Amino acid sequence: MATGIYVVGLGVSHEADLSPEALQVLQQVDLVVGSERQLATLVSLLPVGKATLLLPKLEALQELIDESLAANRSVMILASGDPLFYGIGRWFSRHFSAEQLTFYPAVSSLQVACHRLGIALQDVEVLSLHGRPLLKLRTRLRQHQPLLILTDAHSTPTALAQECIACGFVDAKVTVCEALGYPNEKIRGFTAQELVSESCQIEFDPLHVSLLEPGCNRGFLPEFPGIPDQHFVTDKEGAGRGMLTKREVRLSILSQLQVAKGECVWDIGAGCGGVSVELAYWNPNSPIYAIEHHADRLGCLEQNRQRFGVVSNLSIVEGRAPQALTGLPVPDKVFIGGSGGELPALLSHVWTLLPVGGVLLCSAVTEASKHHLYQFYETRLGSADSHYETLQVAVSHGNSLAGQVMYRPSLPVTLYVFKKESR
């Protein structure tokens, strides 16, 4: 048999459900690697004397496979269901070339759960909380949008219910599909309120998939960009007060940045996190770095990071820019909302770092900051190295006075946007 890595899905059953091609691989491969449960599903299919090994940690697995390939030995890796749908296949694709890999998919537990429940897979969103923070759930909760969730010991049905209620989805329902394909298969439905009640002493099989139906959104999590100011934790009393970029300006910033998948973004002078939290919330595959030095604002920033569940892709950097920027990944886009009096040096430093196509967006309220931005704008004109745009956002909010509507203006915010076209 040709030297290589053969990643084989086992299906959803207490006995492996292999295709004829996968069965042929099993007969010819030099080594079979899988978890204790996975190997147990192959008992009736394993040839006598076939070498098997319990799946080690990924670092050790990398060494094992490298050694096997170097010795011209073929390796079969067992996977649950479809290896390339929230499975181990993704790890292999990242660490080995396509020429070294052959995949044999099978039906996944997610597909089986949908068929057991009679719902179309395209009508649900899939979320894996296996090995991921439970708070990540908050980034995916949407009104009436079902979530099919792969879980671990930290994301039990009860934990999911607690999160839903904490975020205002008090009518949520959880359907737990346990031990799918095994003789003890069980499917049970609960309301979130039932799961969190003191009388609830239900134990669930560790091998399960949960369908979460959130119901109505009565809490603070957004359904669309532009989180209301009062939903943020800030460093001053009163809803939406404090060092927070207000919603109308924040929406303009999000629109101007146009963050694409995987782009690295710096939010310098992040304050309480209005911009950085929204960037991280709506761009889950982009690393966002919030740079802030003020102690009270850092505390609020961390609380908002937790509150909106953006713990996987929002990193808080304590310190003053530009010193605090040392060691950070090179950004694709940068927003400067506060500079601590270092704006000229900061603009020059960030511009040098940005790649061609990178975007620098700055906001200013004071005349001094506007002046520094205008000087930078003139420098860019002279260098002919960028495309620029500038606008001023002026917002008035309506209030009631003596039974009449009166509009109170907020301070206008000037935005400068520079897109780098050459070095």
Automatic annotation (TrEMBL):
Pathway the protein takes part in: Cofactor biosynthesis; adenosylcobalamin biosynthesis
Presence of keyword Transferase: yes
UniProt KW keywords: Cobalamin biosynthesis, Methyltransferase, S-adenosyl-L-methionine, Transferase
Keyword field contains Methyltransferase: yes
Domain (Tetrapyrrole methylase): residue spans on this chain: 5-195
Name used for this protein in its record: Precorrin-6y C5,15-methyltransferase (Decarboxylating) subunit CbiE
Gene name of the encoded protein: cbiE
